[in-house]
């Protein structure tokens, strides 16, 4: 059986077919834009997560280096290696706390006030070369007991640790990496 369509019916079917093709194209373009946006956001989120985890790792490495230097100097005090102690303050001093650690110039390499030999190995456990070795400073800190008795032998120990990618600019400000300072007061 052959069905013959009139001219009007054929035109109506052709028009309906053209409308459907245009809608499919528009929907496909909208879906493509949505999928692209989701992909860009996913990549941006993963990059941000990677940066956060790298910053945490760098900070942890610097903290571990500072802790190592701090423990080294504490052991030097406990073993009574007195040649490392600097800034011995008398009890009648107007200075209330030791302050040599606060000036960056006292931490420069070659100054007798710092102990950079705490870790003399220039590479870490992973075999990476460490550019800036951690260091520590020991300052005598006379503390008076609560009952007003004589001062006990006390020391303020300050340590600095750095990450592998630590670097500074010409004015001494941190350019990259991480720097961690730790302090402890040790009484004997």
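^ Assign residues to that structure.
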């Amino acid at each position: 059986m052959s069905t013959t369509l009139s001219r009007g019916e054929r035109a109506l079917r052709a028009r309906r077919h053209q409308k459907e093709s245009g809608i499919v194209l528009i929907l496909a373009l909208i879906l493509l834009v949505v999928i692209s946006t989701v992909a860009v956001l996913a990549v941006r989120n993963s990059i941000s997560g990677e940066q956060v985890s790298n910053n945490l790792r760098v900070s942890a490495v610097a903290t571990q280096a500072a802790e190592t230097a701090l423990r080294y100097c504490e052991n030097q005090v406990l073993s009574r290696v007195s040649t490392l102690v600097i800034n011995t303050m008398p009890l009648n001093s107007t200075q209330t706390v030791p302050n040599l650690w606060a000036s960056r110039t006292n931490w420069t390499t070659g100054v007798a006030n710092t102990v950079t030999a705490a870790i003399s190995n220039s590479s870490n456990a992973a075999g990476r070369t460490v550019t800036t070795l951690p260091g520590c400073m020991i300052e005598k800190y006379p503390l008076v007991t609560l009952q007003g008795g004589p001062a006990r032998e006390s020391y303020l120990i300050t340590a600095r640790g750095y990450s592998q990618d630590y670097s500074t600019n010409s004015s001494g400000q941190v350019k990259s990496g991480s720097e961690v300072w730790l302090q402890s007061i040790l009484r004997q």
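The mean pLDDT is 77.
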